[in-house]
Amino acid sequence: GRLSIFFAPTTVTLSVIGLRNHPDEGKFIGFLGDLLNGVHFDYFIKTQNPCPFQPIANTILCLAADDIHAQALQHNGQVRFTVGPHQAGDAGVTLTHSRKIFKIPFTLLQQFMAIPDDADVTLYFWVTIFPLIQAENMETVMKSLIDYFRVAATLDTAASTSSLVWNNAAAMPTPIGRNADIIERRTSQLKRSFPTIFVDRAAASQVQ
Questions:
Q1: Which of 4, 69, 168, 186 has a C-alpha 20 to 30 A away from that of 195?
Q2: How far is CA 68 from CA 19, 74, 85, 98, in A?
Q3: pLDDT attached to residue 73
Q4: pLDDT at residue 45 greater than cutoff 80
Q5: Would you list the domain boundaries of the chain?
Q6: Helices 143-153, 65-73: crossing angle, 10 deg rounding
Q7: Which of 81, 79, 78, 56 is nearest to 69 (CA)?
Q8: What superkingdom heads the lineage (predicted)?
Q9: Is pLDDT at 85 greater than 70 in this prediction?
Q10: From CA 67, how far away is CA 93, in angstroms rounded?
């Protein structure tokens, strides 16, 4: 599966700055790309059917996180990493549910951004990111993230070639182009919330 990381998702309320009847008013928008360098595009993230925020239709039997991690470490990497499918009564499985979208905790943002474009994202999580969660003793806090990847790794049937958490084309965020009004509004919000991100580093380096 392909991982797309959308930043600064927000509900567009351009009416508060005087833009009435804007076609994107009320939409849930995130951006993909580099905001600081201007190389980014806005995407409309659906919040109605089909909606990646809704729980997946079916729960699925999944192994415990430690067991999936152990199998991931033994994976040869020649094919996509999967486990299962599992049956009721199999040792160590529990019914698990998730959504088709997940929030990346700020403490793990760099790790997710470092995932190579051609990587098996699920395998990368279990081999590289999950041990970091364990090391910080944050398995309870990050249960929803872990459950997402438990479902992502698990086949629902032997004939499956995808994952229950994958989004089809109809549910994927859709590009809406570069909207100058949205960019200006969001940038001002981000500057207020994260002023250190928008520092002119070249100028700051000259200040003693």
A1: 4
A2: 50, 10, 13, 16
A3: 96
A4: no
A5: 7-45+173-204, 60-153
A6: 50
A7: 81
A8: Eukaryota
A9: yes
A10: 10
